[in-house]
Amino acid sequence: MSGNTSKCLQLENINPNFITMEYAVRGPLVIRAGEIEKELKQGVKKPFDYVIRANIGDCHAMGQKPITFLRQLLNLTFDPELLNSPNYPEDVKARAKTVLEGCQGQSVGSYTDSAGIEVIRRQVADFIAARDGVPCDWHNIFLTAGASPGIKSVLALLRCKVDGKAPGIMVPIPQYPLYSATIAEYGMTKVDYYLEEESGWSLSTAELQRSYDEAKKTCNPRAIVVINPGNPTGQVLTRQNIEEIIRFAHKNKLVILADEVYQDNIYDKDSKFFSFKKVLTEMGSPYSEMELASFMSTSKGYLGECGIRGGYMEIINMCPQVMAMLTKSITASLCGTTAGQVAVSALVNPPKPGEPSYEKYIAEKNGILGALKERAELVHKTLSSFEGYKVNKVQGAMYVFPQVVIPPKAIEAAKAKGLPADVFYASELLESTGICIVAGSGFGQKPGTYHYRSTILPQTDVLKDMMNKFQKFHSEFMQKYK
Questions:
Q1: Which helix (H) or strand (E) holds 222?
Q2: Which residues contact 173 (CB under 8 A, 6 or more apart)?
Q3: pLDDT, tens digit, for every residue of 415-463?
Q4: Which end of the chain, N or C, is less packed with Cβ atoms under 10 Å?
Q5: Full-model pTM
Q6: CATH number for the segment(s) 110-349
Q7: What's 16-51+364-481's CATH class?
Q8: Angle, nearest 10°, between helix axes 421-433 and 460-480?
Q9: Which positions fall inside the Aminotransferase class I/classII large domain (predicted)?
Q10: CA-to-CA distance for 272 and 260, rounded, in angstroms?
């Protein structure tokens, strides 16, 4: 029974799905990292001076500087009096005026259409059409507060028993915990399909079919989630792999949910981003008629504006009546934050060559992506040298997901504390070095293997310090539990 029986709400009488759901990226280790930060401020002596939060893809928290163009656009739209200031370039002023003209009362303080400001939705459509070389209808664009609400709205749409069976959602393992948390919250069934670590986290259709056939016994698989570039795995799918996934989804009547928020984060010279929409369209009928929802965010890429909460989703080939129901459900939330919508405008309609802001914008963008590429290589090279580590190349996104061989004595020590071995490893690392990572069990992993996810976001000098501390810790850990 719950502790306080005088309360109306008890653990026994709330939605049980809330108890089931977990979100490892902000779990107990992160709470402990916050406590350690407070202890350091209070003067408690530790074997380190500061905490490195490598647990979450929060670019600005890790020292990344904002893109000037985006912040100027926000300033001008939120304080239109600045449009008279000589301190802002004319191309930014012109864009701010366009956005303000799209707002009721020419103010970002007004409600927008539930799907977002029309002029920005049109800008998104132009951006997608230019990216993919295929048409894009702005009516299919919804502006969202980051990618997460868009993903949740589509998953909510699928929440319906078919033939008496609960809906199943196929998700890659390892996966981003938003999916497992939302699927649990909605009382749906998570259908795991394993990525092939041995071949750079690729995806085999045989594994997809195995997963689907197994799931059919207990649920009704209705959609497949694909994260490309991968989180937490950092791989970039080949075009051939994308075509195979599309054929599989068509054969098994699955809606495709394409999480493409890291499309700008490609570091490997042999890798290239292809959107699911582009590939599906170019494959022609019947694949070009498939239902697809794709998601993008201003939190990642080179903007890294996590807190502003900007994003969009594009939905194609959905039955018009179903689209109307989805739109109706979105209207219940009134509208996404206008700051996020302005950030989306900055993402999809950046300065063009010849415009006053272009040189500074492109220098900042290339500087950020270049530094991330350098860090991706540094992390891969360093971790690959550790005893008992298997590390795939970080082709894209912002993370590394190494496999760690944890000695039997350490596994026993973890059991004695009631912890999974990878959580024990991550906990020991945090207490010894101040480095906060997320254990692989929070993302899913093949039974008998242990991993963790770390971001590559710390600034290069901090990242080098982090790698040195990590190396020393791992060496001592292996020695201690030999």
A1: strand 220-227
A2: 192, 193, 194, 195, 443, 444, 445, 446
A3: 998 888 898 999 999 999 999 998 888 888 888 899 998 988 888 888 9
A4: N
A5: 0.88
A6: 3.40.640.10
A7: alpha beta
A8: 120
A9: 87-447
A10: 13
